[in-house]
Design brief:
This protein is of the alpha+beta class and about 300 residues long. The protein folds into 4 domains: about 70 residues, no CATH class; about 110 residues, Tetrahydropterin Synthase, Chain A (2-Layer Sandwich); about 30 residues; about 35 residues, no CATH class. It is built from 7 helices and 8 strands. The termini are far apart. Bound molecules: 2-acetamido-2-deoxy-beta-D-glucopyranose (NAG). The site of 2-acetamido-2-deoxy-beta-D-glucopyranose (NAG) has 3 residues, from helix 4. This is Band 7 domain-containing protein. Keywords: Membrane, Transmembrane, Transmembrane helix.
Length: about 300
C-alpha cells in the first residue's frame, strides 16, 4: 500500500467522523412541534428559556435545547361525582365538564410559574374544584331544583374569574346530574307528606270545630235538662215531705187535744192511772201483731161500777 492511498483513507475517515458529528449535532438540535402543540425552547445546558412560543413546525437550535410543550387545543377537565355543600349545608353531587386552554401568548410566564403542563394542569384542577365549591355554596337546595341555568352561570363566572389569573381560557361548560343525596330526598318527601297532612287537617278544622261546638251545645242542653229534672224532683219531694210533716203534726195535735180532754176535769177527768191503762189498751188495740207486755195490772179491770 502506498503512502498516498494511506493518506486518502485517513482523509476519508476524518471526513466520515466529521460528518457523523455534524449529523449527530444537527439531529440533537432539530425538533418538531405538532399541529396541536405550542412550545417554548429551553436550553438544558445554559438553563435559558426562549421568549417566543413556537407553533407547528421543524425547529433547529443550539445543542442541548428542547421544547417545553403545551397543548394548542382545548383540553377537557372532568369532575365526576364531586360532592359540595350548598348554602344550607346539604351535600350536592355534581358532574361537571369543561374545556380549557392556556393562553399561547402567556406560555413563557406559565412555564416560569408552573414549570410544565402537568404541573399547570394540577393547579387548574384544584382551582376548578375550588370554583365549584364556591358556586355551590351560593345556592340553596330549592334553587338547585329551580335555577339550574343560573347555577351553571355561577360556575362559569367563578371559573373564569380564577382561570384568568392562571392565564387560561374556559369554554363549553356542562353541569350534569345535580343529585341530592337520597337521605335528603326522603326527608323532602316526608316533609311534603306532612305539609299535605297539615293542609287536610286545616281544611277539616272548621267542620271539626262545628262538630265540637255542636257536641258542647248538646251536652249543655242535656245538662240543663238533667238539672231541671233534678230540681223539679227535689221540689216535689220537698213538697211531699212538707205535706207529710203537716199531716203528722195535725194528727199529733188532735191526739194531744184528745188526751187533754181525757185528763181535764171539764172532760172525763181520768186519774193518771186510769189514763195509762187507757193508753195500754190503745197500744194493744192498734197493734197488728200479738203484743206481749209486762205491765202492772190496772187498778181496776173495769171502770163500770158493779
Ligand atoms: C332560596 O333562595 C331563594 C333566593 O335567594 C329564596 O327566595 C328562597 O326563599 C330560599 N329558600 C330557602 C328554603 O331558604
Amino acid at each position: 500500500m502506498s503512502s498516498n492511498s494511506r493518506c486518502c483513507i485517513g482523509v476519508i475517515v476524518a471526513i466520515g467522523v466529521g460528518l457523523a458529528l455534524i449529523i449527530g449535532l444537527v439531529s440533537t438540535s432539530l425538533k418538531k412541534l405538532d399541529s396541536d402543540e405550542v412550545g417554548i425552547k429551553y436550553n438544558t445546558i445554559q438553563k435559558t428559556l426562549d421568549g417566543e412560543p413556537k407553533l407547528e413546525g421543524l425547529y433547529t437550535g443550539p445543542p442541548g435545547y428542547e421544547f417545553i410543550v403545551f397543548p394548542n387545543t382545548f383540553t377537557t377537565m372532568t369532575f365526576n361525582r364531586l360532592d359540595c355543600l350548598n348554602a344550607e349545608g346539604v351535600t350536592i353531587t355534581l358532574n361537571v365538564e369543561y374545556q380549557y386552554k392556556a393562553q399561547p401568548k402567556d406560555i413563557k410566564k406559565i412555564i416560569l410559574d408552573f414549570k410544565d403542563f402537568d404541573n399547570y394542569k394540577k393547579v387548574l384542577e384544584t382551582t376548578g374544584e375550588a370554583s365549584l365549591h364556591e358556586a355551590c355554596s351560593h345556592f340553596n337546595t330549592s334553587q338547585f331544583q329551580t335555577e339550574r341555568g343560573a347555577f351553571q352561570e355561577e360556575i362559569r363566572t367563578a371559573l373564569q374569574k380564577r382561570y384568568v389569573d392562571l392565564m387560561c381560557i374556559v369554554t363549553d361548560l356542562q353541569v350534569n346530574n345535580i343529585a341530592r343525596p337520597s337521605l335528603y330526598e326522603s326527608a323532602i318527601r316526608s316533609k311534603e307528606r306532612a305539609r299535605e297532612d297539615i293542609k287536610v287537617a286545616k281544611s277539616e278544622e272548621p267542620r271539626r270545630l262545628t262538630e265540637a261546638d255542636t257536641e258542647i251545645l248538646q251536652a249543655e242542653t242535656q245538662g240543663k235538662i238533667i238539672m231541671n229534672k233534678a230540681e223539679s224532683n227535689a221540689r216535689i219531694r220537698n213538697n211531699k215531705a212538707t205535706a207529710e210533716a203537716e199531716a203528722i203534726r195535725a194528727e199529733f195535735q188532735k191526739e194531744a187535744e184528745a188526751y187533754a180532754f181525757l185528763l181535764n176535769s171539764n172532760g172525763l177527768g181520768l186519774t193518771q192511772e186510769g189514763f195509762i191503762s187507757y193508753l195500754g189498751s190503745r197500744v194493744i188495740a192498734a197493734a197488728k201483731q200479738p203484743v206481749y207486755i209486762n205491765l202492772g195490772t190496772p187498778a181496776k179491770t173495769s171502770y163500770v161500777t158493779p
